[in-house]
Write a structure and sequence with these properties.
The protein is mainly alpha-helical. It has helices spanning 14-28, 39-47, 65-79, 84-93, 96-102, 110-119, 123-126, 142-269; strands at 11-12, 55-57, 60-64. Strand 2 and strand 3 form a beta hairpin. Helix 1 (14-28) crosses helix 3 and helix 3 packs antiparallel against helix 4.
Amino acid sequence: MDILYPHRKFAGNATELSEKAVECASNFGWPVDPDKTNERLVRYYVAEGVIDRPERQGREATYGFRHLLQLLSARRMIDAGMSLSVIGRHNLLTATQALEEGLTQPIPTEAEILVNSFKSPDASRNFFAKSKPAQPPTPLAIPDVLHEVKRMKEDWMSEISFVKKLRHDFADLRAEMEQHRNLVTKAQESLHSSLGKMTHISAQRDQEFMSHVGQLIERHTHEVRARYQEMGSVVAQAQEDFSARLSELKDRQDQLIEMVQRLQHKIDAS
């Protein structure tokens, strides 16, 4: 990434970190308010577990390139409406290279952040990892000791809250999965019941249809037979009438022949 490459060796205090973040955000073309991105915001993010704690050399706090990436990610995700707890989980459990690559990619959803946190093999150990000083530590004054004890207590309470939140998220996820399983079971039962009813209705209608067709065939067969018998009677009567007319015509023909023969005989006799 050309924008972040010159800042890989960045090391500075909270003020310099906020100024560097404003510069990088402007280079990315993101809207940023310099009055809100300041030293006070950096210290607030550290206290809330949004970015890693700085390295300390005595009373001096030093921030590096990873803190810059975390601060840029936090400002970007805050503008997207995400909570500090979700942003902190993302920033503290994501590797530095992944944080750098993520600045040029779409902002992950809360569900994706939760899943990615589970994939981290050292999630519970690295969530509140302590920074090791580059040099042997110097003796601490009483106020520093009290501050360190308070910080350790806050870390422990934050870790407890994080574990409780994970248990709560698991319980919600399990309840949601059980609800979906019940819905699927009810849907399957309803589908089987509907298919059974449809099959019964279809079989009943098929039976009624075949019965109706059989009745129609039987009725039409009876009518055809009756018509056939009726037509047979008509044909037989017509044959009888034709035979009678034919016999009558034959008798008349014989009479005419006889009359013609008589007339011919008279003519010959004359």
